[in-house]
Amino acid sequence: MISNPINSPWSKNVADVLKELETNVENGLSLSEVVSRQSRFGFNIFKVEKKMGNLQRLLNQLKSPVVIILLFATIISVVLREIVDSIAIITIVIINSFIGFIQETRAEEAVEALKKLSAPKTRVLREGNIVEVSASNVTLGDILILEAGDYVSADARVLKASQLSVDEMILTGESLPVSKIESPLPTLSILADRKNMLFAGTAISTGSTQALVTAIGMSSEMGKIAEMLESAENVKTPLQTLLEQVSNKLLIFCAGVILIVAVLGIVHGEEWITVLMTAISLAVAAIPEGLPTIVTLALSLATHRMAKRNAIVRHLPAVETLGSTNVICTDKTGTLTTGKMRVRETFTLDSGIINESTLSTETHPSIRALIQSSVLCNNASLNDDESSTGDPTEVALLFSGKNHHIEYKQLTTLFPRLAEWSFESGRRRMSVAVKSDDSVLLHVKGAPETVLPLCRLTEVEKNRINESIEKLSSQGRRLLVVATKTLLPSSKEFNFNEFKESSTVENNLSFLGLISIADPPKEESIEAIKQCKAAGIIVVMITGDHPNTAKAIARELGIIKDGEFDQVLTGLELEQITQAELEKRVTNIAVYARVTPEHKLRIVEAWQSLGNIVAMTGDGVNDAPALKKASIGVSMGKGGTEVARQASSMILTDDNFSTIVSAIEEGRAIFGNIKRTIQYLLSGNLSEILIMLGAASLGLPAPLAPVHLLWINLVTDGLPSLALAAEPVPKNVLAFSKRPSPKDFFDKSFYKEMAFVGIMTSILTLGVYVYSLKHEDEITARTHAFSFLVFAELFRSFASRSEHKTFFQMGMQSNIYHLIAVAIPIIFQISLHHVRFFRGVFKVETINWIECLILLGLTLIPVSLIEIRKWMKHNKAESAN
Ligand code: ATP
Fold first, then answer.
1. Across the chain, what does the average pLDDT equal?
2. What would the 3-class secondary structure string for 257-272 be?
C-alpha cells in the first residue's frame, strides 16, 4: 500500500522501494497512474494558498475607508429623505467598488501568471521518456532525473548516483555539499545521515542521479518545516511604500482644507447638513486612496509586456529596480556573443598557424592528430540534422573534425573512453583516458595558461607558442591547447580510483597544438550597448576567456571607451587586490577576464558600494550568490541551471543581452507611466479642493454638489488613470528618459507641475462659475462649472500620456484604451444633460449648443496651456544640448 510518505525508504534496498511504490525503473510511471496518484495524494506543493474568491474580493472593496464614508453619507441622505441623492451615492459606491475589483483582479491575474512562468521545473521519467514538468506536478513513485544545478522537488530515494553531491544547507545547515550513495542505511539514521536520500528544496552540487520520489508536498521533510519558511510574498515595492507615506500626508492636508471649507460654509450661513454632505463628498473625491493600487497594476501590466519580450520577471518590485538599473555586468559567451562557435585557425609546432578554410589534414598530419585528440576529449554531439547538443566550444571542435572526415562515433569506437576528469571553470581544462590497442592514452584540452605548464616544451617552443597565442587572442579568438600522453602501457592495470585526482595524470604532457575558435558578437548586442551608452547605463563584460580575447570582443561590441573605461582585470589580479582597492578602480574596469563565478560577488559588491543599481547575469550553480546579491539577478532560461533561475529576479527566455536592455526600457517607461498617472490624479484632486475652497472664501454657494464631486472622482480618476498606467513604451525611451529613482519621484518639478495644473484649472472653473452666477440661476451656474471640470479633466488626460511629447507629436502612437476611457465618460456626461431622469439625479440643466460650444472651447484651455508649456520646455532643453 502506497502512503505519503512511505516508511523509512532509506533502510530498504532499491528494488524493494521500487516495488513498494509500484514503479518501473526503465519507464517510470504511466500518465494515467500519475493523474490517479495526484488525485489521491494531491499536488507537490508546500502550502495550499487560500485564494480569494471573486465575491470575497468584491465585498472587500466595501471595506475601504472611502466606501465607508460614502455609506455613512447615504444613511444621512436616507434619514433626510433625500432618496434620489442616496440612490445616486449607492450607485456610485457600486461602480467605484467594481472598478476597484477589476483593478485588483487584473493585477492579481498578472502576478499569478508570473508565478506560473517562473515556477521551478524538473525532469522525470514517464512512459519511458524523460520529460520536463513543473515541480508541483511530481508525484509519489516518479523517477527524478537530476544533474548539477537542479533543484530537488520532492524527497526521493537515490537509485543511481554518479559523483553525486548535494547542497543541503537549507535543511540541515551543513554548508559543505554532502556525497550521496545508493546502498541502504540503518532505520534509525537521523536526517543528516540519510546519505541515500534526496530532500525537497535542496540542490544538486555535482554529478547526476536517478531518484525515486518517496514523499511529496507537506509530507516531505521540507514540508514539515514549511511554516517556518513561509516568506513574505506580498512585499511592497519601494514606490508603493513611498506612495503610502505620501497618501497619508495628503490625507492630513485634505482633511485640513475640508475643515476650512466646512467652517467657511457654516460662517456663510449654509445648512449644517449641506456642509456635512459636501465635506464628506470632498473627502471622497480628494483623498488619493488608489495610489498603491495604480502602482501594482502598472507594474503587473509591465511584467506582462516584458514576458512577451522574453524577460520573465519573478517578483514585482524587480520591475521598479530594473527602471533604475545603471550598471549591467554580463557574461560574454552566448549572451553578448552568438555562442555559435567555429574553429578558425590551428597552430602546431610543425605547421605554424593555418587557416581552417585552407587547411588540408592530409598534408598536415600533426594537425590531424590535434583535431582527433580534441574530438576524443569531448562530450558534445552532432545530430543528423546539423543541430548539436553540449558545450558550444566542444561543438566547434566536432564540426571541425567533421570537416576533416574525423567522426566522433568512429573515433570513440576505436578508442573507447575509460575515464574523464571534467571541465570546471576553476581549472579550465578537461581530460579523458581512452583505450588504444592495449595502452591507455590521455587527451587533455583547456585554456593555454592551465595546460601549457603541464607540457614538456623547450624555451624556443614556448616562445613560438606564446607568440601565436598573443596574435590569435588579440583577434578575439577563444584558444585551446591540446596535449596528450601515454598514461599506461597496458589497459589492464587501469584503475580509476588510483587516478581520481586529476593532478596524478595531468603532467608531463606532449603538446599537440593550439585551436583558435571564433564566437562573433551578436548584432543586436552591439545595438543594445549603443542604447545603454545613450542612456548612461554602464556595461561590464565578465568572462572566463583570455584577457586579450575578451578585450578584442569588448572592443567589437563597443563596451570599451578608450582612456576612460578600458581596463581589463583578470581573476588572478582580482584575488590580489583588496575590496577597498577594487571599489576605487571599479569604474575604470570594462572587462573581467579569466574569472570564476565566485569573483562575480565581489564585482557586484564593489559597484553597489558606490551607490549603483547593478544587474548581473549568471547561469551556473556557483553564480547563485552573485545573482542574489545583485540588485537584479538575471538568469538564463535556455542554458542556465534551475538553481540560478530560482536565485534570480529575472529570467531571459532567449539568453540574450539585448533582452536585458528591453526590460530596463520597460522599467523606465513604467516609472514614467506611474508618475504621470499619479500627477494626473493628484492635480485633479487639487483643483477640486481649490474650487471648493475658493468659492467658500469668496462667500459663494458651493459650485459642486456632493453628487458632482463623486461623479468627477469616478469618471476622471477611474477610467483614464487605468488607461494612462497602461501607456505603451515609447520608442527610444532610454535615450530621452532620466534614470528614475523612487527617492526623487516626488521632486520639485512634480509639485510645480501639480500646482500649475491645479491652480489653473480651479481659476478657470471658478471663472466660469462666477460668470454664470451673475447671468443665470444657481443651478445653471453649477451645471456649467460641473461640466467644465469634467471635460477639462478628461481632455487634460491627453497631455498626461507623455512627459516630453505633445499630443500632436505623439501623432499616430495611440493608446486605444485611453481613447475608450475618455469616450465613455464623455457620452455619459452629455447624456446627463439630455436625459430627464439624470438631470434630476445630478441636479443639472440642459446646456444648449451655443453654450456647449463655448464650454468646449474653454475646456481646451488647460490642456493647451500644458502642452504649450511642455513644448517650450522641450525646445529649451534641446537648444541647450
Ligand atoms: P563567458 O563568461 O564569456 O560565458 P565562460 O565562462 O564560458 O565565458 P569558460 O567556459 O569558463 O568561459 O572558459 C574559459 C576558458 O576555458 C576558455 O577560454 C577555454 O580556453 C577553456 N575552455 C572552455 N570550454 C572548455 C572545454 N569544454 N574544455 C576545455 N577547455 C575549455
1. 86
2. HHHHHHHHHHHCCCCH
